[in-house]
Amino acid sequence: MNSIKIAARQPIDIEQTLQSGQVFRWNKIGEWYYLVINHNLVSIKQESLEDILVRSETLSGLDLETAVNDYFRLDDDIEYIYKSICTDKHIRSAIQSYRGLRIVRQDPWECLVSFICSANSNIPRISSNMTNLAAAYGNKLHLDEHSNYSFPSPHQIFQAGEQQLRELKLGFRARYVAAAAKFVLYGECDLDSLKKLSYEESKQTLTLISGVGQKVADCVLLFSLEKLQACPVDRWVRRAMEGWYSIEPNLSYEEISSWAINRWGPFTGYAQQYLFQQKRLEVSN
DNA sequence: GGTTGACCTGCGGAC
DNA sequence: GATTTCAGGTCAACA
């Protein structure tokens, strides 16, 4: 068992980050959060707002630190980002409430499948879909007495086929997930290579995939492909925009998204995530 | 080009 | 308790 402490020197709130609908395969046991990073099962404990404890069987030292830093984007200067997006009282209040909430940098393939599964669904169900996929086709990973699975490769999902995916209760999304696997396998599109393209170019490529529209593409771009200006507009963000910024109810996705990018610039994705969290939790409380 | 309904499933909230 | 609604959308068909 390898254990290290990471001093982020800036706020990082593991709970808020994992509970903000970016990541669907993690669980909390006692004070420890278990999640899979690059095919390694890792556990994390919050020590203070700027310090975390991390454990792993398969990564150690600098490798472990780098993997976790990378995943939670601890290289982002979050204080600078706060300053840059804090244009009004709504954002200010959201930042105050959820200080330390990070955008993650997760594996693009798993992220793509997650958000294809998110269509007309809800968080508990998306989690169950992703957990079932991993348990069915992934490789088992261990950490002390706990276990989890790596997420299956495009090849593994493609081999499973649409019918088996339906049996895992993906519903109409089964066809889309199978199509995405095929696209990544045979479409000569290495998802990671999209990081090098512009926001517009990479978005255009992603939406070639059946089952990937603007919303899903923006989620994948923001949470896995380095496009921090991407602004996924879902029901919650739309409600936030209409309620707090007097955006007209009948604006198109494109119009809302562009409005936001125009207002918040290169870190619009962060602004979006804070508004999303604020609006979503304001209702449930 | 914008609008509308279908799509799987499960689970809180309304009858 | 049985029934309906609505979920972090996308696509195809239509006017």
Please tell me about this protein's structure:
This protein has 285 residues and is of the alpha+beta class. The chain has 3 domains: 2-75, TATA-Binding Protein (2-Layer Sandwich), CATH 3.30.310.40; 108-224, Endonuclease III, domain 1, CATH 1.10.340; 235-284, no CATH class. The protein has 13 helices and 7 strands. The chain has helices at 14-18, 61-71, 78-85, 89-98, 108-117, 123-137, 154-167, 173-186, 199-206, 214-224, 235-245, 253-264, 268-284, and strands at 2-7, 26-29, 32-37, 40-48, 51-56, 140-143, 146-149. It has a 5-stranded antiparallel sheet with strand order 1-5-4-3-2. Strands 6-7 form a two-stranded antiparallel sheet. The chain is globular. The model has no long low-confidence stretch (mean pLDDT 95). The structure holds a DNA duplex (15 and 15 nucleotides).
